[in-house]
Amino acid sequence: MTFLNHGSFGACPKQVLDFQQRLRSQLEQEPLRFFGREWEPLLDDARTKLAAFMGADVQDLVFVSNATTGVNSVLRSLTFSPGDEILTTNHEYNACRNALDFIASRTGARVVVAKIPFPIDSPQQVVGAVIERVSPKTRLALLDHVTSQTGLIFPIQELVKELQQRSVDTLVDGAHTPGMIPLELREIGAAYYTGNCHKWLCAPKGAAFLYVRRDKQSKIRPLTISHGTNSPRTDKTRFQLEFDWTGTDDPTAYMCVPEAIAFMGSLLPGGWTELMQQNHQLVLQGRQLLCEALEVQPPSPEEMIGSMAVVPLPTTWEKRDFMSIHDELFDKFGIEVQLIPWPEKPRLLVRISAQIYNTLEQYEYLAKVLKGLCC
After folding, report:
1. Domains of the chain: which residue ranges?
2. Whether pLDDT at 319 is above 80
3. Bond from prior residue into 346 cis (ω within 30 degrees of 0)
4. Cα 75 from chain centroid?
5. Which of 174, 176, 229, 336 could lock onto 145 through a cystine, CB 3.0 to 4.6 A?
């Protein structure tokens, strides 16, 4: 299998999965002891180490099962009135755009879409397009840090600053960011930020986080209301008491995050810095191979690419169903890669990912197969 789609669901190392299994055995051998005594110290330790990795204060972090849950938790907690505007872009992840539409339908608010061009020439085009759509009615902006559909790194810190100057809070969908590019949540300064740990951090599936700035925490509630709501404890904030326990579940994915951070950071002499740089250079090389084979231009500058990149497929494929192409690549050639329909020209994109297990020869193989299929 030529696996070039790490971006969708990540890939958890065996060492981390073995660690998770030991935790699950610990839980099942004596569930009352685990949930009564052992669970919370393990969760707190995981949160502390994740906060250090992402440049955040530990009091501002809670675990959630995925970034979509993080986005929904914030949107469902905030209050919107008829006529209010919620700003997003045409690159927003479909699941989170659906959440926006749901909130708008329930509250009478309006979703305003900033059109980010693609192909794109510079990060400033993102800033200009977003700020142009801000109005006195804008109450919140939901923005990607790294876009799923187009693999672009948005200049999120500049966007947050510009929006704050206009009294607009930002909810950052950072599903792909942790482990792909360096992340300093304090410096970004967003009111809300959520990201997955199961993608580029390579933690088990079901591990993600929600960051809420201290001045915003009193309004943010989990999707499931449970015991934390009326807990008499004073050693933790209500924010953490509510999110930490939302009912009986398997919390071991959260507890494996430090193991994943340590393992992935041990694979190269330069640790995480070298790993991110290596993945970045590899995906750029892979993109160039595809562009040359398909005779197309790179659709974005290198500075807007992390460890994922997209390349337009030939216009002759515009009428083909993208899943049929995906299945043909998988069934006939053993290639797992993401095919993405785009509403404007170019109509069809191929998205490649780069992680430490990938090689340049795999992108050469994909380029050869695509050229053979389309030419």
Report:
1. 14-263, 269-374
2. no
3. yes
4. 17
5. 174
Tens-digit pLDDT profile for residues 23-33: 999 999 999 99
Spatial neighbors of 287 by CB under 8 A, at least 6 apart, are 298, 305, 309, 311, 352
Do residues 244 and 210 lie in contact, with contact meaning Cβ atoms separated by under 8 Å? Answer: no
Q: What is the DSSP string of 252-271?
A: HHHHTHHHHHHHHHTSSTTH
Query: Strands across the sheet with 348-353, in order?
Result: 308-312, 348-353, 338-341
Q: Specify the CATH architecture of the domain 269-374.
A: Alpha-Beta Complex (3.90)
**pLDDT exceeds cutoff 70 at 309:** yes
Q: For residue 89, what are the β-bridge partners?
A: 114
| Overall CATH class of domain 14-263 | alpha beta
What is residue 208's predicted lDDT score, i.e. its pLDDT? 98
Token digits of residue 199: 């993608």
Q: What's the pLDDT at 375?
A: 62
Written as one string, the DSSP assignment of 50-99 is HHHHHT--GGGEEEESSHHHHHHHHHHHS---TT-EEEEETTS-HHHHHH
Residue pLDDT, tens place only, 331-367: 999 999 999 999 888 789 999 999 999 999 999 999 9
